[in-house]
Amino acid sequence: MSLRVHSKFNDLATQMRLPLGLLNAAQGHPMLVELKNGETLNGHLVMCDTWMNLTLKEVVQTSPEGDKFVKIPEVYVKGNNIKYLRVPDDIIDVVKENQANHQQGGFRGGRGGNRGDHGGRGGDRGRGRGQGRGGRGRGNRGGS
């Protein structure tokens, strides 16, 4: 028996890309990061990677109780310590537009799709079989 989940994003790859696409679009913008230990970081996103590790600049760190504040020039946050992220609403709108444009573009994947006449071994695109790089080759081993 197979179970099919119907949602706005049926493609699992699209679901997996959504948070990273949002973070990539948020680079250079202010954001709030809440950590699992209760601390919050407010700063501008400099960089993120595929593990959701973040680098923030111009950061204000707030204690879990909310009574202590520390200004830090730059902070690196490991993704597995992040509990919650808040990005500006306009960034979310930009990501939605990009996804809508990407979905309208149709299928672009595959082997050499939509790249002109680049396939095969014809023309001067490659050496092909039997045309060496000018070396001795296998047929001339030993002797002369």
From TrEMBL:
- Specify residue ranges for compositional bias: Basic and acidic residues: 114-127
What GO terms in the biological process aspect are recorded for it? mRNA splicing, via spliceosome; nuclear-transcribed mRNA catabolic process
Checking Pfam families in the record gives: LSM
* Residue segments, region Disordered: 96-144
List keywords of the entry alphabetically.
mRNA processing, mRNA splicing, Nucleus, Ribonucleoprotein, RNA-binding, Spliceosome
Q: Where in the cell is it found?
A: Nucleus
Extract the InterPro entries matched here. Answer: Lsm4, LSm4/Sm_D1/D3, LSM_dom_sf, Sm, Sm_dom_euk/arc
* SUPFAM superfamilies linked to this entry: Sm-like ribonucleoproteins (SSF50182)
Cellular component aspect of the GO annotation: spliceosomal complex; spliceosomal snRNP complex
Q: GO: which molecular function terms? A: RNA binding
Kindly report the protein's main subcellular placement as a broad class.
Answer: nucleus
Compositional bias of type Basic residues: which residue ranges? 135-144
SMART domains on file: Sm
Q: Which residues form the Sm domain?
A: 18-91
Similarity remark: Belongs to the snRNP Sm proteins family.
Quaternary structure (record) = LSm subunits form a heteromer with a doughnut shape.
Please explain the role this protein plays, according to its UniProt record: Binds specifically to the 3'-terminal U-tract of U6 snRNA.
Kindly provide the name given to this protein in its UniProt entry.
LSM complex subunit LSM4
Tell me the name of the encoding gene. Answer: LSM4
